[in-house]
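Quick check before the chapter quiz. The format below is the same one you will see on the exam, so make sure you can read both the input and the output lines.
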Amino acid sequence: MNSGDDTRESTRCPGCRVELPVQPWPDNPKIHASAACLKAAGDLLVFEIEHREQLGYLHQLRMDAYHAQHVQAGAPRIGPVFALNGLYMFLERGSGNVDVRTAHGIMANSFDDWPELTAPESAGQLTASDVLAAGGPDEVEKAMLTWAAQVWDAWPDSDRALVRKLTIDLVPARYLHR
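Here is the expected output.
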């Protein structure tokens, strides 16, 4: 039986390039994302909150992966640096939510000459929508970790090296767990 859903208008996200059905969702001019992709990210947040005991430790990682995948040209330079800093701290240093947010505060208050990073043409194959569609909490957890690693790995080596250096230079070692 054809429900008619296959004829719905779709939109391609300019950030992650996922194609999703058009959604009545407000735009966010600070994020290079379609309304449908923003809705998927919001739905993923709701899923995370519903399963916060298992997924709560990934809250900052989810935000950083999404923002590093949806960099707006001309946006403040601090945004991509912070998103990559969060990915670096979690994936390579084992730092969690509070440590990453603390590092962001320390960095923001001790530095202001942020480098201009240029987002890669493709920042990973997985998207927030893919993570949300992964299944239950175990599958979403695994997909979120894979997504974040893909996004981090998609950025140029030189940008990742610069973020590592800024983090090590600006953030006290006690927030970097490895």
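If your answer matched, good. The chain has one domain: 8-175.
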